[in-house]
Structure formats: C-alpha cells, structure tokens
Amino acid sequence: MRILQRGDTGSDVRTAQTALIRAGYDPGAANGVFGAATERAVMQFQRVLGATRDGIIGPVTWQFLEPFSLESNPDVLRRGSRGVMVRRLQEALEASGNSPGRIDGLFGTKTQAALRAFQRSAMLAQTGVADRATWLAIAPYIDYSDVYLRRGDRGMLVTILQTALTSAGFSPGQADGIFGSRTFNAVTAFQRANRITADGIAGPRTWALLKPYLSGELMTYVVRRGDTLSSIARRFNTTVEELLRLNPREDPDLIFVGETLLIPVSKGWKDQGS
Q1: 187-200 residue pLDDT tens
Q2: Which of 18, 20, 64, 155 is 20 to 30 A (C-alpha) from 45?
Q3: What's the pTM?
C-alpha cells in the first residue's frame, strides 16, 4: 500500500477508510477521498497506537490497519466474526481473567471489550481485533486438548506452534502460519527429544510438553522508533542473542518500526513507557 495523506484519492484511500470504520473510527463516507474527517480518524487511531499523530497513513499505521481490512484471513477476528476460533478466543479470554460473557462462538460487544482489556494488560494496541500479536500474547491461555496440527495446515495456531518450537530451541524457520517441511522436522525433532512418538503431528501430548514455552515466559513487543535489539534487550533484562533465538532473521541488525518481537519475560524488566 502507498503512503496516504489528506488530498489523496483512489481505491487505497477507500480501503483505509473502510478499515478505520471497522476499527471504530469515523472517517466519514468510504468514498476514496482523503479529507479532513479521514485525517481526524487516522490521528485518533494513531493516538491509541502510541504512534506519531500526523494523520498520514504510512507503513506503521498501515500495519495496524491491515487486520481491519483483511477479510480473507479467517483467524483475524473482529466484532461480527463467528466460529470455532472465536470460541477458542473466548475461552482463552475467560482463562486470562477477562470475561467475554457467554462463550458461544459469536464475537459481540462483550468479547470485544474483554479483548481490549486483555490487549491493554499485554501492552498491545487496544484495537479489539484478534490479530497475530494478540494471538501470540494470549497463547498461554488457549485450551490445546483437542488441537491437532499436521503438515499442510495453516493459521494462527500454526504460528503459535512455530513460536513455541523456536522458544524450545527447535527452529521451524519463519513463524508464517504454514505447516511445511521445516515445521514438520522441528515438531519431529522436539518429539524425539522428549521421547514421545515422533510422527510430526502436534497433538495434545506435544502441546502439553510445549506448555512451558507458551506460559508467561514470553510476551510480545512492538518495535518503536529509535529501538535497537540492544536497547530492547536492556529494557527487558535479556540478551541480543536470546532475542535473535526467538526472532530468527537473516540480518541480525535489521528490525523495523511496527514489527512484533517475542520477548522473554524476566522479573527484572522495566516498563519505561513510550
């Protein structure tokens, strides 16, 4: 997506306006014209994110608007969503102490409020949308007793599996939500190391063994302007090496504003604010 600002027109502007409306902000009509109302809505959205309130939709703002514009990803959940993954989310919210009300697989106002409360406690943008960062943060509270993942599967549960395997020291490569050969090999290696049937299927027994790598030992952090891996490591009382183990990349010096990193939680970390 291109950078958008007041005065721009076109389909990208309409997409952004529609996303803002879904996020609960009023840009006026989704007419493809970036006017004063759209600029105000963008600034309000940026204020919630803690981003620079310039009214311009650049790469960082686009990243956080994206979940509201993605209709094709069934695991990005928002008000109006329904189904098995909504029920899993509701159960996880209840387990985390943020009651969504009735656990019925319907994403309504109570689920949205509970999700925003959880996001606030997890230091995430309070969008009320269950995006990738939110799923990773709430992963410790999900019930995996009936979850079976195998080669060919896709989705947020696969992403959670991949991040847990990485934390356990069995890298599946990029945590992209696609259960391919590298994830299969990592699952098999993890199972073999724990002396259970090495079938490459992540079932309840494998999830139980992965539980320590899903518990409160991990949190997510969104990279801000001026951050480096060294400064993030100091803030959270960890090491650059540990950050790279949890967030593998080809260039160890490359991070970008808006990127979500996995962080090991330590008793000594200090919340220094934004």
Answers
A1: 999 999 999 999 99
A2: 155
A3: 0.63
